[in-house]
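Hey, can you fold this one?
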Amino acid sequence: MPTFIIDCPRCKAKVGAEHGTYVDRSWYDDDMGEPFGERIVIGKCPKCTLILVGRAEQITFAGYAGEDHDTFRDVVRVYPEPPKVFTSERIPEP
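Sure. Predicted structure:
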């Protein structure tokens, strides 16, 4: 079964959550002049079985600007109790 990495608030650790399902949404942002997309994933912690929901922004789009595949950023938990995170486009990914 596929997994995704996400913070589990009960286990207080990053876990490889068992992938349940996901939904993708993408559109063309006319103001920015480029596409935008996101993926919502649902799964459960393999240790405590807590249901986890996360969101990942899409950074490349298949067929756009010569890209072969869709690529997404790391999953950030949105349920339960989203983590308090400072995000900025000026801070590089780890």
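The mean pLDDT is 86. Let me know if you want another pass with a different chain boundary.
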